[in-house]
Amino acid sequence: MPTPELELEIKQLIVDSLKLEDTTPESIDSEAPLFVEGLGLDSIDALELAMAIRKKYGLKTQADDAQNRKIFANVKSLAAYVAQERAKENAA
């Protein structure tokens, strides 16, 4: 289960990695869409964000993975993915 701290950490990562100058982590709604509506990110932003997630958390997503839409839907789903993958690593 993602924590509010992890969600805020991911929001900060989004702001920093995508250089969103007019956006603060606190202003991002955890359940708002990241792409098109909501934050309004595009496919280039998706690549940047995926690389930032890989760098910070060591998690890889596949470019053609059908799950990516679900994982990157919003901050809450992204935080859930990170938390789930961390739990798998800790269990191994």
Describe this structure in words.
This protein is mostly helical. It has helices spanning 4-17, 43-57, 67-71, 75-91. The protein has a single domain (4-25, 34-91), classed as Non-ribosomal Peptide Synthetase Peptidyl Carrier Protein, Chain A, CATH 1.10.1200. The longest helix is centred in the C-terminal third of the chain and has 17 residues, at 75-91.
Structure characteristics:
0% strand, Non-ribosomal Peptide Synthetase Peptidyl Carrier Protein, Chain A, globular, mainly alpha, 92 residues
How would you state the average pLDDT, rounded? 92
What sequence of helices (H) and strands (E) makes up the elements? HHHH
* Rg result: 12 Å
- Poorly predicted runs: none
Helix content: 55-70%
CATH architecture: Orthogonal Bundle
The CATH class, by name, is: Mainly Alpha
Number of domains: 1
Q: What is the number of E strands?
A: 0
Q: Determine the N-to-C terminus distance.
A: 18 Å
Number of helices: 4
Give the helix/strand class: mainly alpha
Quote the beta fraction: under 5%
Shape designation: globular
Map the helices and strands.
Layout: H1 4-17, H2 43-57, H3 67-71, H4 75-91
Helix pairs in contact: 1-2, 1-4
Short recap of the structure:
By secondary structure, the chain is mainly α. Helices cover 55% and strands 0% of the residues.
